[in-house]
Design goal:
20 helices; D-Maltodextrin-Binding Protein, domain 2; 47% helix; alpha/beta; binds alpha-D-glucopyranose; four-stranded mixed sheet
Protein backbone atom coordinates (compact mmCIF):
# COMPACT_ATOMS: atom_id res chain seq x y z
CA UNK A 1 0.00 0.00 0.00
CA UNK A 2 2.71 2.36 1.05
CA UNK A 3 4.73 1.44 -1.98
CA UNK A 4 1.81 2.12 -4.31
CA UNK A 5 1.23 5.52 -2.74
CA UNK A 6 4.84 6.45 -3.24
CA UNK A 7 4.75 5.41 -6.87
CA UNK A 8 1.62 7.50 -7.46
CA UNK A 9 3.12 10.49 -5.70
CA UNK A 10 6.23 10.24 -7.81
CA UNK A 11 4.10 10.10 -10.93
CA UNK A 12 2.16 13.20 -9.94
CA UNK A 13 5.33 15.03 -9.04
CA UNK A 14 6.83 14.15 -12.43
CA UNK A 15 3.70 15.33 -14.20
CA UNK A 16 3.72 18.60 -12.23
CA UNK A 17 7.35 19.12 -13.07
CA UNK A 18 6.66 18.63 -16.76
CA UNK A 19 3.82 21.14 -16.63
CA UNK A 20 5.85 23.57 -14.59
CA UNK A 21 8.73 23.21 -16.98
CA UNK A 22 6.57 23.85 -19.98
CA UNK A 23 4.57 26.68 -18.45
CA UNK A 24 1.07 25.45 -19.28
CA UNK A 25 -0.74 22.25 -20.10
CA UNK A 26 -0.71 22.94 -23.87
CA UNK A 27 2.85 24.20 -23.99
CA UNK A 28 5.41 22.53 -26.20
CA UNK A 29 9.17 22.29 -26.29
CA UNK A 30 10.75 23.27 -29.60
CA UNK A 31 14.33 22.65 -30.60
CA UNK A 32 16.21 25.14 -32.76
CA UNK A 33 19.68 24.82 -34.22
CA UNK A 34 21.48 28.16 -34.23
CA UNK A 35 24.90 29.23 -35.43
CA UNK A 36 27.65 29.98 -32.93
CA UNK A 37 30.10 32.26 -34.73
CA UNK A 38 30.92 35.33 -32.59
CA UNK A 39 27.90 36.38 -30.53
CA UNK A 40 25.39 34.34 -32.49
CA UNK A 41 24.56 31.64 -30.00
CA UNK A 42 23.95 33.94 -27.05
CA UNK A 43 21.87 36.24 -29.15
CA UNK A 44 19.80 33.35 -30.47
CA UNK A 45 19.15 32.20 -26.89
CA UNK A 46 18.06 35.69 -25.91
CA UNK A 47 15.72 35.94 -28.91
CA UNK A 48 14.09 32.55 -28.45
CA UNK A 49 13.69 33.06 -24.71
CA UNK A 50 11.72 36.22 -25.39
CA UNK A 51 9.38 34.24 -27.67
CA UNK A 52 9.13 31.40 -25.13
CA UNK A 53 8.16 33.86 -22.42
CA UNK A 54 5.62 35.56 -24.64
CA UNK A 55 3.96 32.33 -25.74
CA UNK A 56 4.47 30.13 -22.65
CA UNK A 57 6.47 27.51 -24.55
CA UNK A 58 9.99 26.20 -24.13
CA UNK A 59 12.78 26.35 -26.67
CA UNK A 60 15.97 24.37 -26.49
CA UNK A 61 18.84 25.94 -28.45
CA UNK A 62 21.24 23.50 -30.01
CA UNK A 63 24.58 24.85 -31.16
CA UNK A 64 26.15 23.81 -34.45
CA UNK A 65 29.73 23.73 -35.77
CA UNK A 66 31.27 27.10 -36.76
CA UNK A 67 32.41 25.63 -40.06
CA UNK A 68 29.48 25.94 -42.50
CA UNK A 69 30.59 22.82 -44.38
CA UNK A 70 30.63 20.71 -41.21
CA UNK A 71 27.29 22.14 -40.27
CA UNK A 72 25.77 21.08 -43.58
CA UNK A 73 27.03 17.53 -43.05
CA UNK A 74 25.46 17.50 -39.57
CA UNK A 75 22.12 18.79 -40.87
CA UNK A 76 22.08 16.30 -43.72
CA UNK A 77 22.60 13.48 -41.28
CA UNK A 78 19.81 14.66 -38.96
CA UNK A 79 17.34 15.35 -41.76
CA UNK A 80 17.96 12.19 -43.71
CA UNK A 81 17.05 10.16 -40.63
CA UNK A 82 13.59 11.78 -40.80
CA UNK A 83 13.52 12.27 -37.02
CA UNK A 84 12.25 15.31 -35.17
CA UNK A 85 15.51 16.04 -33.32
CA UNK A 86 15.32 19.66 -34.49
CA UNK A 87 12.20 21.68 -35.37
CA UNK A 88 13.82 24.89 -36.66
CA UNK A 89 17.03 24.94 -38.67
CA UNK A 90 19.17 27.98 -39.39
CA UNK A 91 20.20 27.38 -42.99
CA UNK A 92 22.81 28.99 -45.21
CA UNK A 93 21.77 30.95 -48.31
CA UNK A 94 23.35 28.22 -50.46
CA UNK A 95 21.36 25.34 -48.98
CA UNK A 96 17.70 25.67 -50.10
CA UNK A 97 18.37 23.51 -53.16
CA UNK A 98 20.23 20.92 -51.10
CA UNK A 99 17.90 20.65 -48.10
CA UNK A 100 14.64 22.12 -49.46
CA UNK A 101 12.79 18.81 -49.65
CA UNK A 102 13.01 18.43 -45.85
CA UNK A 103 11.28 21.73 -45.05
CA UNK A 104 7.68 22.93 -44.99
CA UNK A 105 6.30 25.82 -47.04
CA UNK A 106 6.22 28.88 -44.78
CA UNK A 107 3.85 30.88 -47.00
CA UNK A 108 0.70 29.71 -45.18
CA UNK A 109 2.17 31.21 -42.00
CA UNK A 110 3.84 34.38 -43.26
CA UNK A 111 0.84 36.57 -44.02
CA UNK A 112 2.78 37.83 -47.04
CA UNK A 113 5.47 39.63 -45.01
CA UNK A 114 8.19 38.11 -47.17
CA UNK A 115 7.53 40.99 -49.57
CA UNK A 116 9.29 43.28 -47.05
CA UNK A 117 12.52 41.27 -47.35
CA UNK A 118 15.16 41.50 -50.11
CA UNK A 119 13.44 39.92 -53.14
CA UNK A 120 16.59 38.14 -54.35
CA UNK A 121 16.84 36.33 -51.01
CA UNK A 122 13.15 35.40 -51.05
CA UNK A 123 13.60 34.07 -54.59
CA UNK A 124 16.68 32.17 -53.43
CA UNK A 125 14.68 30.59 -50.60
CA UNK A 126 11.83 29.55 -52.87
CA UNK A 127 12.29 25.92 -53.77
CA UNK A 128 9.83 24.00 -55.98
CA UNK A 129 7.36 26.83 -55.38
CA UNK A 130 7.65 26.60 -51.57
CA UNK A 131 9.11 29.27 -49.31
CA UNK A 132 11.43 26.92 -47.47
CA UNK A 133 13.25 29.58 -45.42
CA UNK A 134 12.41 32.99 -44.02
CA UNK A 135 15.38 35.34 -44.56
CA UNK A 136 17.03 36.17 -41.20
CA UNK A 137 20.16 38.10 -42.03
CA UNK A 138 22.27 38.73 -45.08
CA UNK A 139 26.02 38.75 -45.33
CA UNK A 140 28.36 40.33 -47.83
CA UNK A 141 32.15 40.16 -47.82
CA UNK A 142 33.64 43.44 -46.54
CA UNK A 143 37.07 45.00 -46.24
CA UNK A 144 37.94 46.04 -42.68
CA UNK A 145 40.88 48.41 -42.40
CA UNK A 146 42.83 50.19 -39.69
CA UNK A 147 41.91 53.88 -40.03
CA UNK A 148 44.69 54.92 -37.65
CA UNK A 149 47.41 53.09 -39.60
CA UNK A 150 46.28 54.34 -43.00
CA UNK A 151 46.36 57.89 -41.72
CA UNK A 152 49.73 57.40 -39.95
CA UNK A 153 51.26 56.33 -43.28
CA UNK A 154 49.18 58.78 -45.32
CA UNK A 155 47.57 56.12 -47.46
CA UNK A 156 44.05 55.96 -48.89
CA UNK A 157 41.63 53.11 -48.50
CA UNK A 158 42.65 50.77 -51.36
CA UNK A 159 40.44 50.61 -54.43
CA UNK A 160 42.20 47.77 -56.17
CA UNK A 161 43.95 44.61 -55.02
CA UNK A 162 47.24 46.09 -56.22
CA UNK A 163 46.74 49.12 -53.99
CA UNK A 164 45.83 46.86 -51.09
CA UNK A 165 48.93 44.72 -51.61
CA UNK A 166 51.21 47.78 -51.69
CA UNK A 167 49.61 49.45 -48.63
CA UNK A 168 49.59 46.21 -46.64
CA UNK A 169 53.29 45.62 -47.34
CA UNK A 170 54.33 49.14 -46.57
CA UNK A 171 52.48 49.36 -43.25
CA UNK A 172 53.33 45.81 -42.19
CA UNK A 173 57.06 46.34 -42.76
CA UNK A 174 57.14 49.75 -41.07
CA UNK A 175 55.17 48.52 -38.05
CA UNK A 176 57.45 45.51 -37.69
CA UNK A 177 60.49 47.76 -37.77
CA UNK A 178 58.81 49.94 -35.17
CA UNK A 179 58.53 46.95 -32.83
CA UNK A 180 55.36 44.97 -33.63
CA UNK A 181 56.92 41.80 -34.96
CA UNK A 182 53.50 40.14 -35.17
CA UNK A 183 52.01 42.59 -37.66
CA UNK A 184 50.54 41.24 -40.91
CA UNK A 185 49.12 43.09 -43.90
CA UNK A 186 46.00 41.15 -44.82
CA UNK A 187 44.03 38.32 -43.19
CA UNK A 188 41.04 36.40 -44.56
CA UNK A 189 39.57 32.87 -44.65
CA UNK A 190 41.68 30.29 -46.51
CA UNK A 191 40.87 26.96 -44.93
CA UNK A 192 39.49 24.34 -47.35
CA UNK A 193 35.78 24.95 -46.58
CA UNK A 194 32.75 26.96 -47.71
CA UNK A 195 34.12 30.25 -46.38
CA UNK A 196 37.11 29.94 -48.68
CA UNK A 197 34.80 29.45 -51.65
CA UNK A 198 33.35 32.88 -50.76
CA UNK A 199 36.80 34.54 -50.59
CA UNK A 200 38.10 32.95 -53.79
CA UNK A 201 34.86 33.66 -55.66
CA UNK A 202 35.18 37.34 -54.68
CA UNK A 203 38.69 37.51 -56.18
CA UNK A 204 37.60 35.75 -59.37
CA UNK A 205 34.47 37.87 -59.82
CA UNK A 206 36.40 41.08 -59.06
CA UNK A 207 38.61 40.43 -62.11
CA UNK A 208 35.46 39.77 -64.16
CA UNK A 209 36.26 36.06 -64.15
CA UNK A 210 32.64 34.98 -63.58
CA UNK A 211 31.12 32.86 -60.82
CA UNK A 212 32.37 29.30 -61.62
CA UNK A 213 29.11 28.29 -63.32
CA UNK A 214 26.81 30.82 -64.99
CA UNK A 215 23.07 31.22 -64.42
CA UNK A 216 22.30 28.99 -67.43
CA UNK A 217 24.43 26.16 -66.08
CA UNK A 218 27.56 26.52 -68.24
CA UNK A 219 30.91 26.07 -66.49
CA UNK A 220 32.95 29.26 -66.91
CA UNK A 221 35.87 28.93 -64.49
CA UNK A 222 38.57 28.27 -67.08
CA UNK A 223 39.38 31.83 -68.11
CA UNK A 224 42.49 34.05 -67.83
CA UNK A 225 40.83 36.53 -65.44
CA UNK A 226 39.98 33.76 -62.95
CA UNK A 227 43.52 32.37 -63.17
CA UNK A 228 44.98 35.83 -62.68
CA UNK A 229 42.83 36.47 -59.60
CA UNK A 230 43.91 33.23 -57.95
CA UNK A 231 47.59 33.61 -58.88
CA UNK A 232 47.55 37.11 -57.44
CA UNK A 233 46.15 35.86 -54.11
CA UNK A 234 48.78 33.10 -54.02
CA UNK A 235 51.39 35.86 -54.04
CA UNK A 236 50.09 37.17 -50.69
CA UNK A 237 50.93 34.00 -48.76
CA UNK A 238 54.01 34.58 -46.66
CA UNK A 239 54.37 38.18 -47.86
CA UNK A 240 51.37 40.14 -46.54
CA UNK A 241 49.34 37.15 -45.28
CA UNK A 242 50.57 34.53 -42.81
CA UNK A 243 50.89 31.01 -44.23
CA UNK A 244 48.55 29.91 -41.44
CA UNK A 245 45.66 31.60 -43.32
CA UNK A 246 45.32 28.35 -45.24
CA UNK A 247 43.70 27.05 -42.08
CA UNK A 248 41.76 30.17 -41.06
CA UNK A 249 38.02 30.56 -40.72
CA UNK A 250 36.16 33.79 -39.89
CA UNK A 251 36.98 33.80 -36.18
CA UNK A 252 40.70 33.15 -36.74
CA UNK A 253 41.01 36.19 -38.98
CA UNK A 254 39.00 38.30 -36.56
CA UNK A 255 41.19 37.22 -33.65
CA UNK A 256 44.34 38.53 -35.35
CA UNK A 257 42.76 41.75 -36.56
CA UNK A 258 41.03 42.47 -33.26
CA UNK A 259 44.25 42.05 -31.30
CA UNK A 260 45.81 44.74 -33.46
CA UNK A 261 48.00 42.49 -35.58
CA UNK A 262 46.67 43.08 -39.08
CA UNK A 263 46.19 46.15 -41.27
CA UNK A 264 43.35 44.73 -43.41
CA UNK A 265 40.84 41.92 -42.96
CA UNK A 266 38.16 40.37 -45.15
CA UNK A 267 35.15 39.35 -43.08
CA UNK A 268 31.36 39.46 -42.80
CA UNK A 269 29.41 42.23 -41.03
CA UNK A 270 29.16 40.35 -37.69
CA UNK A 271 32.80 41.29 -36.98
CA UNK A 272 31.97 44.99 -36.73
CA UNK A 273 30.16 44.96 -33.39
CA UNK A 274 32.86 42.76 -31.83
CA UNK A 275 35.66 45.03 -33.07
CA UNK A 276 33.83 47.95 -31.46
CA UNK A 277 33.46 46.38 -28.00
CA UNK A 278 35.21 47.98 -25.03
CA UNK A 279 37.66 45.12 -24.71
CA UNK A 280 38.72 45.32 -28.36
CA UNK A 281 42.25 46.62 -29.00
CA UNK A 282 41.06 48.24 -32.21
CA UNK A 283 37.88 49.93 -30.91
CA UNK A 284 37.27 53.17 -32.86
CA UNK A 285 40.27 52.47 -35.10
CA UNK A 286 38.44 50.49 -37.77
CA UNK A 287 36.81 51.47 -41.05
CA UNK A 288 34.73 49.32 -43.41
CA UNK A 289 34.87 49.54 -47.22
CA UNK A 290 33.85 47.53 -50.26
CA UNK A 291 36.38 44.85 -51.22
CA UNK A 292 38.97 46.06 -53.76
CA UNK A 293 38.56 45.77 -57.51
CA UNK A 294 40.58 43.38 -59.64
CA UNK A 295 42.45 45.39 -62.30
CA UNK A 296 39.79 47.22 -64.28
CA UNK A 297 37.14 44.87 -62.93
CA UNK A 298 34.81 45.58 -60.05
CA UNK A 299 34.35 45.25 -56.33
CA UNK A 300 32.69 41.90 -55.70
CA UNK A 301 31.22 40.81 -52.38
CA UNK A 302 29.96 37.26 -52.00
CA UNK A 303 26.33 37.01 -50.96
CA UNK A 304 26.01 35.12 -47.72
CA UNK A 305 23.38 34.94 -45.05
CA UNK A 306 21.09 32.71 -43.08
CA UNK A 307 17.45 31.70 -43.16
CA UNK A 308 15.13 29.93 -40.76
CA UNK A 309 13.41 26.78 -41.92
CA UNK A 310 10.91 24.40 -40.31
CA UNK A 311 11.52 20.68 -40.58
CA UNK A 312 8.71 18.70 -42.15
CA UNK A 313 9.43 16.02 -39.54
CA UNK A 314 8.61 18.43 -36.70
CA UNK A 315 5.62 17.45 -34.56
CA UNK A 316 4.94 21.14 -33.88
CA UNK A 317 5.13 22.72 -37.31
CA UNK A 318 2.64 25.51 -36.67
CA UNK A 319 4.34 26.59 -33.48
CA UNK A 320 7.77 26.30 -35.07
CA UNK A 321 6.58 28.54 -37.92
CA UNK A 322 5.34 31.04 -35.33
CA UNK A 323 8.79 31.10 -33.76
CA UNK A 324 10.35 31.64 -37.20
CA UNK A 325 8.01 34.52 -37.98
CA UNK A 326 8.82 36.10 -34.62
CA UNK A 327 12.60 35.78 -35.08
CA UNK A 328 12.44 37.31 -38.56
CA UNK A 329 10.14 40.16 -37.50
CA UNK A 330 11.29 43.80 -37.87
CA UNK A 331 11.74 44.25 -34.10
CA UNK A 332 14.01 41.23 -33.71
CA UNK A 333 16.00 41.90 -36.89
CA UNK A 334 16.52 45.46 -35.71
CA UNK A 335 17.71 44.39 -32.27
CA UNK A 336 20.10 41.84 -33.77
CA UNK A 337 21.52 44.50 -36.06
CA UNK A 338 22.07 46.94 -33.22
CA UNK A 339 23.47 44.44 -30.73
CA UNK A 340 25.55 42.29 -33.04
CA UNK A 341 25.67 43.93 -36.52
CA UNK A 342 23.72 41.27 -38.35
CA UNK A 343 22.46 42.85 -41.54
CA UNK A 344 18.67 42.79 -41.67
CA UNK A 345 16.88 41.24 -44.62
CA UNK A 346 14.00 43.70 -44.21
CA UNK A 347 14.75 46.55 -46.59
CA UNK A 348 13.04 49.36 -44.68
CA UNK A 349 15.30 48.81 -41.66
CA UNK A 350 18.18 50.30 -43.64
CA UNK A 351 16.56 53.70 -43.03
CA UNK A 352 16.31 53.19 -39.27
CA UNK A 353 18.38 55.87 -37.45
CA UNK A 354 19.23 53.65 -34.43
CA UNK A 355 20.45 50.92 -36.69
CA UNK A 356 22.56 53.29 -38.81
CA UNK A 357 24.06 54.88 -35.72
CA UNK A 358 25.25 51.50 -34.43
CA UNK A 359 26.39 50.34 -37.89
CA UNK A 360 27.26 53.29 -40.15
CA UNK A 361 28.55 50.88 -42.83
CA UNK A 362 25.07 49.43 -43.34
CA UNK A 363 23.96 52.77 -44.80
CA UNK A 364 27.26 53.75 -46.45
CA UNK A 365 27.65 50.40 -48.16
CA UNK A 366 24.00 49.73 -48.97
CA UNK A 367 24.86 49.29 -52.65
CA UNK A 368 27.42 46.62 -51.71
CA UNK A 369 24.64 44.66 -50.06
CA UNK A 370 22.46 45.02 -53.12
CA UNK A 371 25.11 44.12 -55.72
CA UNK A 372 26.54 40.93 -54.37
CA UNK A 373 27.91 37.94 -56.25
CA UNK A 374 25.89 34.80 -55.66
CA UNK A 375 27.53 31.41 -55.45
CA UNK A 376 26.11 29.09 -58.14
CA UNK A 377 23.80 27.25 -55.75
CA UNK A 378 20.51 27.83 -57.54
CA UNK A 379 21.67 26.41 -60.83
CA UNK A 380 23.48 23.43 -59.25
CA UNK A 381 20.73 22.71 -56.69
CA UNK A 382 21.39 19.72 -54.48
CA UNK A 383 24.84 19.27 -56.02
CA UNK A 384 26.11 22.73 -55.03
CA UNK A 385 28.28 21.41 -52.22
CA UNK A 386 30.07 19.10 -54.64
CA UNK A 387 30.86 22.08 -56.89
CA UNK A 388 31.97 24.27 -54.03
CA UNK A 389 34.13 21.49 -52.63
CA UNK A 390 35.89 21.06 -55.99
CA UNK A 391 36.39 24.83 -56.26
CA UNK A 392 37.80 25.37 -52.78
CA UNK A 393 40.14 22.38 -53.14
CA UNK A 394 41.44 23.67 -56.45
CA UNK A 395 41.97 27.18 -55.04
CA UNK A 396 43.63 25.74 -51.94
CA UNK A 397 46.15 23.87 -54.08
CA UNK A 398 46.99 27.05 -55.97
CA UNK A 399 47.42 29.07 -52.80
CA UNK A 400 49.56 26.43 -51.16
CA UNK A 401 51.83 26.39 -54.23
CA UNK A 402 50.88 22.86 -55.33
CA UNK A 403 49.53 23.88 -58.72
CA UNK A 404 49.63 26.78 -61.18
CA UNK A 405 46.45 28.83 -61.37
CA UNK A 406 46.03 28.34 -65.13
CA UNK A 407 46.30 24.54 -64.69
CA UNK A 408 43.94 24.58 -61.70
CA UNK A 409 41.11 26.39 -63.48
CA UNK A 410 41.51 24.25 -66.61
CA UNK A 411 41.31 21.06 -64.58
CA UNK A 412 38.32 22.30 -62.58
CA UNK A 413 36.54 23.20 -65.83
CA UNK A 414 36.95 19.67 -67.15
CA UNK A 415 36.05 18.06 -63.80
CA UNK A 416 32.87 20.13 -63.52
CA UNK A 417 31.97 19.45 -67.13
CA UNK A 418 32.38 15.77 -66.50
CA UNK A 419 30.09 15.96 -63.46
CA UNK A 420 27.48 17.97 -65.38
CA UNK A 421 24.81 16.64 -67.65
CA UNK A 422 26.35 16.98 -71.09
CA UNK A 423 28.15 20.28 -70.32
CA UNK A 424 25.19 21.85 -68.49
CA UNK A 425 24.32 21.91 -64.83
C1 LIG B 1 28.81 33.24 -43.55
C2 LIG B 1 27.82 33.43 -44.66
C3 LIG B 1 27.47 32.11 -45.30
C4 LIG B 1 28.73 31.41 -45.75
C5 LIG B 1 29.66 31.24 -44.57
C6 LIG B 1 30.98 30.63 -44.99
O1 LIG B 1 28.22 32.62 -42.47
O2 LIG B 1 26.66 34.05 -44.22
O3 LIG B 1 26.60 32.32 -46.38
O4 LIG B 1 28.47 30.19 -46.36
O5 LIG B 1 29.92 32.47 -43.96
O6 LIG B 1 31.85 30.50 -43.94
Amino acid sequence: MKKRYLATAAGVAAACLAIGFAGSANAATLKISCGSVGQELNLCKENVNAWAKKTGNQVVVISSPNDASERLAQYQQILSSGGDTIDVFQIDVVWPGTLGDHFIDLKPFSNGVEKDHFPNVVANNTYKGKLVGMPWYIDAGLLYYRKDLLSKYQLNVPNSWDELTAAAKKIQDAERTAGNGKMWGYVWQGRAYEGFTCNALEWVASYNGGAIIDAKGAVTINNPAAAKALQNAAGWIGTITPAGVLNYQEEDARGIFQSGNAVFMRNWPYAWSLLQKDDSTVKNKVGVAPLPKGGDGRSAAALGGWQLAVSKYSKNQKLAADLVMYLTSPAVEKQRAIDASFNPTIMSLYKDPDLLKANPFMGDLYSTFQNTVARPSTVTGERYNQVSNAFWNMAHEILSGKQKASDGVAKLQSDLNRLSRGGHW
